[in-house]
Amino acid sequence: MSPRGCSLIFGVVFLFLSVFSFTNIHAHHCTEGFLSEAKQRNLINITFCKRYIESNGVEIAMYLREKSRRLDIMVGAKFDEKEKTGWLAWGLNPGPEARMVGTQALIGIKKMNGDFHREKYNITSYTKIGCQLLPSSIDFNVSNFSFSYNSYLQYHVIQACIVLPMKYDVSRLNHVWQVGINVGDVGKEPKMHPKGLRNYDSTETINLRTGVHGVLNIIGWGTLLPIGVIIARNFREFPLPCLAWKEYHVSCQATGYIVGSTGWAVGIWLGKASKYYSFPKHGIFGIFIFTLATLQMLFFQFKPRDRDEFRMYRNMFHHVVGYSLLVVSCINILKGINIMHLDYSYWLPAYLGILACLTFIFLLFEILSWFKFLCDKFGLWILCANHKPNHEEPPNSRKEDARIQPTNTPINN
Questions:
Q1: 130: left (phi over 0), alpha (psi -120 to 50) or beta
Q2: Comparing 288 with 394, which gets the higher pLDDT?
Q3: 333-343: string of b/e by CB count within 10 Å (b at 16+)?
Q4: Taking the model in full, what pTM does it have?
């Protein structure tokens, strides 16, 4: 790989890593006060922090330690100042979707006398039809469970440390939250919450794993490989001739293959680690992409000579595989963003922006190439300033023909 090729590829990779690093750093959508308070309460490297403005204004912060599967959570919300009682709930649902029934909940209760109480609850279908909700055992271990009032934030806050069983997939975690007013006479029974829209939209499926798999695939399969195709198609002769186009093309494709293959390997590992959730179609697409990309890399090693009769068929196969690879990669990246429930306010617009830029550049170069082809093919000299019609005689040709040719006949004086 040439130094110029390395410099180009390094710049592209650094640019996109910087973009995605910036989006990840600023992916917290909770208030600065709540984020600061969470860090002071030992949620140092916060994995997830979000304020649900349209759902009771609840704020939730989480810190996941993947190796030990320990999840530290902090949940805060304001109670109605006019009411003397209230309750705040947060929980996880191990089922296929985020909903109230089946949720293993932690609930903090403010009693009539101003005391605070906290308990664990298993939300069943009986609760939904109006039966009493009383403390019960849940299926994960909880420690450091507390419920208190923070005067600085004016929030009632739940804090706890949870060890997640394997059936809770951290890449697709269903969490539920709720705020209510009325409490039973005993002080351990949260009554039915209000029936407004703000209360019914209180569930979400989130991904607590880092986005390394997605970032590597977007950079490798979704960015570098298309750039390599654009270089090979448009930097060879027209419209941007470059003597080192082949070096750039090979460098781009090789780097894209290495980065994309690394992301694919991470995805294989994630698939095996998530025993209770599988995405076979996404995995099959990934294997197909890796296979096509490997074939493309092999072409660089087994390239026929210029006069080899198989060279034409090899080039056709190379082009078909290359364009198929680009299409399947785009589809699978979009599918992965949808499956993993990544932050749509950053991931989807970022990738669609990359895709739109590459498509615009590709189409612009294609239009210029076809315009030149039509000029050369049909002699459209009026549209092409650098070309003349075939039937027009070269300039000064008539003058040259009219010149007096030298003769050996002596001139009579």
A1: left
A2: 288
A3: beebbebbbbb
A4: 0.57
